[in-house]
Write a structure and sequence with these properties.
By secondary structure, the protein is of the alpha+beta class. It contains ten helices and nine strands. Helices cover 57% and strands 17% of the residues.
């Protein structure tokens, strides 16, 4: 038994009993899919350790509050995408609480203590789709994350001796500042303002991923083609190798580092295959003076093969990374 300081994330499904009562089999299947495709991979990417699962809930330990908050934001953003178009009664929404505090780790890996209890109570007061942070947790991230923050005031949590100042984060909506008074700041049931991650921040995340996992491999492929074909006129086998290895490396990174699912990988793969071949054909045409469009059936078939190799290499490496990360998740889940 050891005592330590840890960032604790507690989460559960809002209205799980209602969802299960309406269609238990479908609800369980959706939850299993969310865990394998979104929750567990995101936890692994941010170096979290699953301490326990409680049916519709989960308790996770992080070494960094920043990692815990980023993990929570990614999960809530992912849920916004997955709930789009669904009627309210069929949406799966999470409440999340995060606290930085003292915990006791048992010999079997379980965690006990106020740090765990406060995180669980924060999750209990969070609204659907939001993240509640204690003051200790917020202090660690207020200057490091692009968040619009508002103080919900001192709140007396159940079975917690002292009131806890709480900060709430509602992901995916623009921040709305509201005038506050000292009385409003002190009232636990009257939030002084809505706390949100701006849409601009979410768009920046996607833009950065497009640059890293589409534009970057595209540039590397075009440079490789220019060097192999235009400058040194090397054997075509070298170009085939480049078309296999470059997307393989970036597809692996998309899953392992970016934490994106199969849909994003498929989109990036197809776009990279098509645009990559078009770019290589254009480059060769400018160098040799040949027509841009392929003139023979063989040239068309060659371009299709290159695009296929690029796309398949990207998708296969992404699937491999997901499989390897699944193994890592199983290790993290073990006490």
């Amino acid at each position: 038994m050891t005592r330590k300081l840890a960032a604790i994330l507690a989460a559960d499904v809002v209205g799980y009993s209602r969802l299960a009562g309406a269609d238990e089999d479908r609800t369980l299947a959706r939850l299993r899919a969310l865990r394998s495709d979104l929750i567990d991979p995101t936890i692994a990417v941010h170096n979290g350790r699953v301490v326990k699962r409680t049916g519709d809930g989960i308790l996770v330990e992080f070494r960094s509050v920043v990692d815990a908050v980023r993990c929570a934001i990614e999960v809530q953003n992912g849920m916004i995408e997955r709930n789009a178009g669904l009627p309210p009664e069929r949406r799966i929404e999470f409440r999340i609480g995060i606290h930085l505090g003292d915990v006791v780790e048992e010999n079997d890996g379980d965690l006990m203590g106020d740090g765990v209890n406060i995180a669980a109570r924060l999750e209990g007061v969070a609204k659907p789709g939001t993240i509640c942070l204690s003051e200790d947790a917020y202090r660690q991230v207020k200057t490091r994350l692009d968040l619009a923050v508002s103080d919900l005031g001192e709140t007396q949590l159940k079975n917690i001796a002292e009131p806890i100042r709480i900060y709430s984060l509602q992901v995916g909506l623009p921040a709305q500042a509201k005038p506050t008074t000292p009385a409003e700041r002190a009232a636990p049931d009257k939030p002084s303002a809505q706390l949100a991650l701006t849409q601009t921040a979410a768009h920046k995340i996607w833009l950065s991923e497009i640059v890293r996992y589409f534009a970057a491999p595209l540039v590397v492929l075009l440079v490789a083609h220019h060097v192999i074909v235009n400058e040194f006129n090397l054997d075509t086998a070298y170009l085939w190798i480049a078309c296999a290895l470059v997307p393989f490396a970036f597809g692996f990174a998309l899953s392992w580092l970016g934490g994106r699912g199969s849909g994003a990988a498929f989109a990036f793969a197809i776009a990279l295959g098509i645009v990559g071949v078009v770019g290589m054909t254009l480059s060769q045409s400018l160098k040799s003076g040949d027509p841009i469009m392929p003139q023979t059936r063989y040239e068309w078939w060659d371009n299709v093969n290159f695009a296929t190799v690029i796309a398949l290499s990207f998708i296969v490496s992404h699937a491999l990374a997901r499989a390897l990360r699944a193994l890592q998740i199983r290790k993290l889940a073990k006490p």
